[in-house]
Amino acid sequence: MTPKAPRFNNCAVLSPQQLDQLLQVLIKRDYEVLGPTIREGAVVYDHVGSTKDLPAGWTDEQAGGKYRLKRREDDALFGFVGGAHSWKKFVFPPAMRLWQAHRSNGLFQIVPETRKATKFAFIGVRACELHALSIQDKVFLKGPYVDTVYKLHRENIFIVAVDCVQAGGTCFCASMNTGPKAGAGFDLALTEVLHEGRHHFIVRIGTKAGADLLSQVAHEEATAADVEFAENLVAEAAKHMGRSLDVNGIKEMLYRNIEHVRWDQVADRCLSCSNCTMVCPTCFCSTVEDLTDLSGQQAERWRKWDSCFTTDFSYIHGSSVRSTPRSKYRQWMMHKLAYWIDQFGISGCVGCGRCITWCPVGIDITEEARVIREGETPASAAG
Amino acid sequence: MATMIENEVPQGLNADPMIPQLYRVDRVRDETDDTFTFSLVPENGEAKISFLPGQFNMLYVFGTGEVPISISGNPALTSVLEHTTRSVGIVTKAMCLLKPGDQIGVRGPFGSHWPLNEENGRDLVIISGGIGLAPLRPVLYFLMAQREKYRKIVLLYGARAPEDILFKKELERWRGKFDLEVQVTVDRAASGWRGNVGVVTPLVARAPFDPSNTVALLCGPEVMMRFAVMELQKRGVPHDRIYLSMERNMKCALGYCGHCQYGPGFVCKDGPVYRFDQIVSVFGKSEV
């Protein structure tokens, strides 16, 4: 079959082999291709050289405080949901040097870190994760100041999204209106179909760059029946979310309940370990560390991920503003579901469920919000 | 999918706003036992200093670290940058040891400012505690330069002890020269002190201003500001005429390290100066 140019709004069909050819074109075009792999008993986004590196035949089982890999009965390449970490580790590195300073004769010079622009291709980005990327774009690129590091990593990304055709035990993207179908922000979007012995991908084109890439590999045009079948799979996944969250008026509801007794109760279980903030695809907090060598003449500044669950986070002259687990958890959850809306005009939660899965004690943001809502006193609800 | 980036870099900053500019310490003046004012001049002699009263800079001491310090100098001066700080932490203690000729890194100025030109023709009441007077000093410079545009100007100031009163000479000069009502109170006093003793907030009740046409500017410990707001409310000053300077931990000052979050906003970009109605949903709530 000879490669042919796809019509921009039509869907294509790719076989797993053709998908691999697509990855090879990306590699040939100097993209650093990243996608789901199996590592340390979990799905971890990392370098992939071909579709052979993808977790063929694996699925995940997620619940509050629980994550297990399991074998599937088929060879699906994307038969799981969100990986352990989000994509943010690539665009917002967990630790990086910002600059160095050298001192001699009492005077110093600051030398900014030189950085090369990266060219990432993300393979298998879920709908919730696309939303998370656009939320971090608002934080790092759309404010009064642009974060130069994020910008450098973010500008040239090629994104191949994957629709979720199954929902995880801690998923609630349907509640957050962020999935399971990839809506916007991708170059190409795939729906993986395994049906009656066939294994293929229905491909939607999001950008000209996506259309161009697709034109480089052999493929067929999808029939209306192919597309409908794929859409039904995604629609079915939306009905099977492991969790749900009532977002109706949630900002005002939480503001009304800033002194709710539930904050004390969740504090009894919360370990302030910061796992939820590390795995969250939108959490963006960072700190800086200033280092010197033994001579005292060389200094460096590093930026590292930080978490509102640490006591240092809110330290000002002599003590911390938020020193109790109650106030730390409240800050985190109110930030996600209430403050974020004031700060950026959008919820900070995409419903990926990672904070529930990776909480060592299984604290569940959807449950906390529900209990607070149900426990509203008539007075606070009226206020 | 690649993303579109179209922001402009605010003036006066590097392309990378995380990189400090070098300044040189020109003068250090002790204000009290533990509080000092230092003047900085840019190493790049052509740089003009420009800030609005209420804004702050991130100051970096080589190898020690960086802290947010409000600008305390005269906003009309473009050649020198002044900060007043108390030495309490590692960085401010190192800062206290700097001598003329030493270098310091500066990022800024950042943040919102006190409303001044907008409030011509009203009474102004300034309520401040301790080091909280530092970010209000540029306001006083500004007001004294155009005294005729305002009606009454009242400064209510609380310090720990008579020897902790900041900017004593300037306050005396302005009081004598410009019809500035200054009422100072101290937490504790030795014999010989003939002024007020106690916290600053009870002074609000008797202060000579017209609540229906007054703007209040507050800076000091949060607990002080909480009681000051209550006193102002009792006198009928509306929420949208009360301004407060808030303080939180700060690392980037650019709006994306998250440290300075204060409920619905970030102190580095939405503050430090807030109009009270902007933060009324969280103000006074503990540990927000």
What does this structure look like?
- Helix content of chain A is 32%, strand content 24%.
- Chain A is an alpha+beta fold and 383 residues long.
- In chain A, strands 3-2-8-9-10-11-1-12 form an eight-stranded mixed sheet, sandwiched between helices. A four-stranded antiparallel sheet of chain A has the order 7-6-14-13, with no helix packed on it. A two-stranded antiparallel sheet of chain A has the order 4-5.
- Mean pLDDT of chain A is 95; it is low at 1-8.
- Chain B has 288 residues and is of the alpha/beta class.
- Chain B is built from six helices and 15 strands.
- The longest helix of chain B has 13 residues, at 222-234.
- Chain B is globular.
- The two termini of chain B are 37 Å apart.
- Classes of the chains: A alpha+beta (383), B alpha/beta (288).
- Chains A and B meet through strand 6, strand 7, helix 3, helix 4 and strand 13 of A and strand 14 of B.
Tags for this entry?
heterodimer; A: 383 residues; alpha+beta; eight-stranded mixed β-sheet; four-stranded antiparallel β-sheet; globular; B: 288 residues; alpha/beta; Elongation Factor Tu (Ef-tu), domain 3; Rossmann fold; 2 domains; seven-stranded mixed β-sheet
